[in-house]
Write a structure and sequence with these properties.
heterotetramer, A alpha+beta (179), B alpha+beta (226), C alpha+beta (192), D alpha+beta (169), B: 226 residues, alpha+beta, Muramoyl-pentapeptide Carboxypeptidase, domain 2, four-stranded antiparallel beta sheet, 5 helices, 5 strands, 38% helix, D: 169 residues, six-stranded antiparallel beta sheet, globular
Chain lengths: 179, 226, 192, 169
C-alpha cells in the first residue's frame, strides 16, 4: 500500500533527495504533502531540544549518536545559557535592522545546529551532521508536530516539560529514517 | 429517560418516535424570543446547508481538548471522566441521529435488528460524522449481548497522549456516547465503552464495546422466532 | 503585507495545509460544552460567559502555535490594522473557514469590530426561552477568549467582547477588539 | 561580502584589538586607549570606547564585552556537547555572521560579516599567522602582554588587516 513519489528538488542541495511516502500507517494526517514522512536520505539528525520562552528546557531527545550524553541538569544549564546568549546575539547585531533576530545557525567542526524561535518565544534546536543546509525544512516540520501533538494534547500543561507519547512517536518516525 | 443536559433545542424537529429528545411543546405556542427582522432564523435556513461543510480538524481538537480539561477538573478518577465525555457524546449523537434520519428522507428506514443497527452505525453514521467507515464490526464470542466496533484511529484521539498514570483512559468515550445515543434513539438501549486496543500498525486503535440491555436480546429472540 | 495577500495566504492554508472535519460535529460539540456550562453554573449566564471566555483563552494560548506553524508567518505584524487583517483572513479562515468583516476602527487605530456574517458555532442554535438567556448569554464567547489568549502569546494584550449577536435578536453579530498595550519582550536576566 | 568588525581577545579574556568597517570602507581605527576587559569594561569611562559604534546602539567597548560573553559561552557549549576536541566555528543570525578562531595559546579572533560570507576559519588563521605573529609578536617594541591593546594597534598590523579584508571581499 505504499506509494512513492519523487518531488522536484528545489532549494535543496542536489545530493539530497526527498522521497515522500504516503503510508496508511502514518497517523499524522496533515493534508496533502504533509501526511507524510519526508525522508532526506543524506541527513542525520543528532538531537532535538525545545526551550520554553523563559529558557527552560522542556524537551530533549537524542536520535542518532553524535553528541555527548549529558546529565539532565547539564542540559538544563545549557538551555539556560543558550537562552541568554541567543538574546545577546541579536543585541550585538552590527547592522541597522530594527527587527533583529538572534542566532539561527551555529556550526562547529562536528555538528551544525539550527535554532528556530517562534513568534511566541519558544525555541526549537535541531542538532545535525555538519554542513547540512536544509535544516529549515526539518525545523518547520518539528514545529508542526509540536503544534499538533503537544499543543492539542489536553494533558499537556503549557510551558512544562513535554511527556507526550504521540509527539515522541511522530518525531521518531519523521527523523529516524534520515540516516 | 431524558439524558440530554441541554437547555437548547436543535433546529431539527423531525423526530423519530423513539428518540429521547426533549419535548417541543412550547415551540409553536408562546415564545418570548426575539428574532432579527433582517436575518433568517434557524427555522428559515435549510437543514442541509451545513451537510457538507467542513471546519478545521484543529478547531475541533482544541475544543475537544478544552472540553476534556474542563471535565477533568470536576471528576474523581478516570471512570468519572469517561462518563462525562460519554454524556457530551450522547448529546451530540442524539442530534446527529435526527439530522441523519431527516436527510434520509423517504428512504429512511427503522432498523429493527441488532445487526442492522450496528451496520447503520459503523457505516452511515460513521461516514456522516467522520468521513470514513468504522474498521471492524464483531460479535464478542463469549457474551451473547456484546458487540465490538473498532476504529483504528479515532478522530478525537489523533493528538491526544494519555499520561501513564491515567492509562485506562480513552477519550473515545465521547464517540462511545454518540453510539449509545444512536442505539437509544433506535430503541436498542445499551452501554457503550471505549477501550484502547493497539496493534503494531495502529497505536491508537480503539474498540467500542457495546453491551445491550437484556430486553433488546429478548426482542431479538422473538423476531428470530417468528 | 497587503490585505489581499493575507487573504491569499488564508485561502492557501485552508485549502492545502488544513485537515478538515465535519462542521456539524464541531457545532454540536460546542453546543454540548455550552449546555454543560449552563447546567453546571445553574443558569448563571454571566458566569457562563466568563467560563467560555476562560476556556477560549486556554485554547488561544495553544492555538497560536498551530496558527504560526501552519501559516508559516515569521514576521510580526507591522501594526494593529495588519493584525486585524491576519485574524480575520488567516486565523478565522484556517480554523473556521470564515472571514469576518473588519469594521468600525477607532480613530487611534486601537479598536475595531469583527462582523460575523456566518458563525459556524451557532448553526442550529436558538437560545433558551427563559426570559434572560437572550439578554445575558453570549453564546460564542469562547471566540473572544481565543483571540485574547492567542494575541497575548505574540505580545499583544487585548480585550475582546461581543456587543451584539443575531441569537439575541440583533441584526448583526459583532465582536469588539481593543488593543490595551503591546507587551514588552521578555529579556533574560543579564547574569554576568 | 561585507566585513563589519574584527576583535581579538587574549588569554586573559581581555579585548586587545577592535576594528570596525562601515559599508566595507575602512573607518578610523578604534584603538583602545585604556585597558578594556570583559569584566572591567562597564566601569571604564574612556573617550572612544564609550561612544556608540556606528550602526549600533552600543559603544564598541560594550559590544566587545558582549561579543566575548557570546563566544565564550558558545565555545563552552560546543565542547560540552561534542567533547573537548570539537571547536566552535561560526554562527549566523538573520542579519550577520560571526566567525571564530581560537589558537592553542588561547588567542581568540572574531570577525563579524554579512550572512552570505563563507567560512572564514582559514582566513582568521591566516591573520594570526601572517599578521599577528609577524607584526605583533615579532615586533621587538611590542610588549608580551597587550593590556589595553598596547602593541597590537601598530601601523603595519593595521594596514595588513585592511589589506586582508579587501582580499576577502
Amino acid at each position: 500500500m505504499l506509494r512513492h513519489r519523487q518531488l522536484p528538488v528545489h532549494s535543496l542541495q542536489s545530493s539530497i533527495i526527498i522521497i515522500i511516502v504516503i503510508s496508511p500507517r502514518t497517523a499524522d494526517t496533515s493534508s496533502l504533502g504533509l501526511l507524510i514522512g519526508i525522508i532526506i536520505t543524506t541527513m542525520v539528525v543528532y538531537a532535538v531540544l525545545i526551550l520554553n520562552k523563559a529558557g527552560g528546557l522542556i524537551y530533549q531527545r537524542d536520535f542518532n549518536p553524535g553528541l555527548q550524553k549529558l546529565s539532565s541538569n547539564d542540559y538544563l544549564i545549557l538551555a539556560g545559557t543558550f537562552h541568554g546568549v541567543h538574546a545577546i546575539t541579536s543585541q550585538i547585531s552590527p547592522t541597522n535592522e530594527t527587527s533583529s533576530s538572534g542566532l539561527e545557525v551555529l556550526e562547529s567542526e562536528n555538528f551544525v545546529m539550527r535554532c528556530f524561535q517562534t513568534l511566541t518565544g519558544t525555541k526549537f534546536l535541531i542538532f545535525a551532521e555538519p554542513r547540512q543546509q536544509n535544516l529549515d525544512v526539518v525545523v518547520r516540520r518539528v514545529y508542526e508536530l509540536y503544534a499538533d501533538y503537544v499543543m492539542k494534547n489536553p494533558f499537556y500543561q503549557i510551558e512544562m516539560p513535554i511527556r507526550s507519547e504521540g509527539f515522541d512517536r511522530h518525531l521518531t518516525s519523521y527523523i529516524k529514517p534520515h540516516q | 429517560m431524558n439524558r440530554d443536559p441541554s437547555p437548547f433545542r436543535t433546529a431539527s424537529t423531525a423526530s423519530t418516535a423513539t428518540s429521547p429528545t426533549p419535548k417541543y411543546a412550547n415551540l409553536t405556542a408562546s415564545t418570548n424570543l426575539r428574532y432579527s427582522l433582517t436575518r433568517k432564523s434557524i427555522y428559515d435556513r435549510h437543514l442541509n446547508r451545513t451537510k457538507t461543510s467542513e471546519l478545521s480538524k484543529s478547531a475541533f481538537a482544541f475544543l475537544f481538548g478544552e472540553m476534556v480539561q474542563y471535565a477533568q477538573k470536576k471528576v474523581y478518577g478516570v471512570q468519572d471522566l469517561e462518563k462525562k465525555l460519554n454524556l457530551h457524546g450522547y448529546a451530540v449523537g442524539q442530534r446527529f441521529l435526527e439530522l441523519l434520519l431527516w436527510r434520509d428522507g423517504r428512504t429512511a428506514k427503522r432498523e429493527t435488528r441488532i445487526l442492522g443497527i450496528l451496520q447503520f452505525i459503523s457505516h452511515q453514521l460513521y461516514r456522516a460524522i467522520f468521513q470514513k467507515q468504522a474498521d471492524t464490526l464483531e460479535k464478542v464470542r463469549e457474551n451473547e449481548d456484546e458487540y465490538m466496533i473498532s476504529d483504528n484511529d479515532p478522530v478525537v484521539n489523533t493528538y491526544i497522549s494519555v499520561p501513564k498514570e491515567m492509562s485506562q483512559l480513552n477519550c473515545g468515550a465521547f464517540i462511545a456516547g454518540i453510539i449509545e445515543a444512536v442505539l437509544d434513539g433506535h430503541c436498542f438501549p445499551a452501554k457503550v465503552t471505549a477501550h484502547t486496543a493497539p496493534n503494531e500498525m495502529w497505536p491508537g486503535r480503539t474498540v467500542f464495546l457495546i453491551k445491550f440491555e437484556p430486553e433488546v436480546l429478548e426482542r431479538e429472540a422473538l423476531r428470530v422466532g417468528s | 503585507m497587503s490585505s489581499t495577500s493575507r487573504a491569499r495566504l488564508g485561502e492557501e492554508v485552508w485549502k492545502l495545509r488544513t485537515d478538515k472535519i465535519n462542521a456539524e460535529l464541531v457545532t454540536l460539540t460546542y453546543g454540548s460544552v455550552v449546555a454543560q456550562l449552563c447546567k453546571d453554573l445553574d443558569g448563571d449566564y454571566a458566569e457562563v460567559n466568563k467560563q467560555l471566555d476562560k476556556m477560549g483563552y486556554n485554547i488561544g494560548l495553544r492555538l497560536i502555535e498551530d496558527f504560526l506553524a501552519k501559516s508559516n508567518m515569521q514576521q510580526k505584524c507591522a501594526n494593529f490594522r495588519d493584525t486585524a487583517d491576519v485574524i480575520s483572513k488567516v486565523g478565522f479562515k484556517m480554523f473556521l473557514n470564515i472571514t469576518p468583516t473588519i469594521a468600525n476602527w477607532s480613530s487611534d487605530n486601537k479598536q475595531f469590530s469583527l462582523l460575523f456574517d456566518e458563525n459556524p458555532l451557532a448553526d442550529f442554535v436558538e437560545l433558551p426561552d427563559d426570559g434572560k438567556a437572550q439578554s445575558e448569554l453570549w453564546y460564542s464567547n469562547m471566540l473572544c477568549g481565543v483571540i485574547r489568549g492567542a494575541l497575548e502569546m505574540v505580545q499583544m494584550s487585548v480585550d475582546a467582547h461581543f456587543v451584539s449577536d443575531v441569537l439575541r435578536g440583533n441584526d448583526t453579530t459583532e465582536m469588539r477588539i481593543n488593543l490595551i498595550r503591546y507587551i514588552e519582550d521578555e529579556m533574560p536576566q543579564d547574569d554576568e | 561580502m561585507v566585513v563589519y568588525s574584527f576583535f581579538i581577545f587574549d588569554r586573559h579574556c581581555e579585548c586587545i584589538y577592535i576594528r570596525q568597517w562601515l559599508n566595507n570602507t575602512p573607518s578610523v581605527a578604534q584603538p583602545l586607549s585604556r585597558p578594556v576587559t570583559a569584566s572591567s569594561v562597564a566601569t571604564v569611562a574612556t573617550s572612544v570606547a564609550e561612544k556608540p559604534a556606528p550602526g549600533s546602539r552600543l559603544s564598541m567597548a560594550e559590544q566587545a564585552k558582549l561579543v566575548f560573553g557570546v563566544i565564550f559561552s558558545l565555545r563552552n557549549m560546543v565542547k560540552k556537547l561534542c567533547g573537548p576536541e570539537d571547536s566552535f566555528l561560526c554562527y549566523r543570525t538573520g542579519h550577520y555572521k560571526l566567525h571564530y578562531y581560537e589558537t592553542l595559546s588561547s588567542l581568540r579572533f572574531v570577525m563579524l560579516t554579512d550572512i552570505r560570507t563563507e567560512s572564514l576559519k582559514s582566513s582568521l588563521h591566516q591573520i594570526y599567522v601572517n599578521l599577528y605573529v609577524e607584526y605583533v609578536v615579532k615586533n621587538p617594541l611590542s610588549p608580551v602582554e597587550h593590556a589595553g591593546g598596547e602593541g597590537v594597534n601598530n601601523e603595519l598590523f593595521e594596514l595588513g588587516i585592511d589589506g586582508f579584508v579587501r582580499t576577502i571581499d
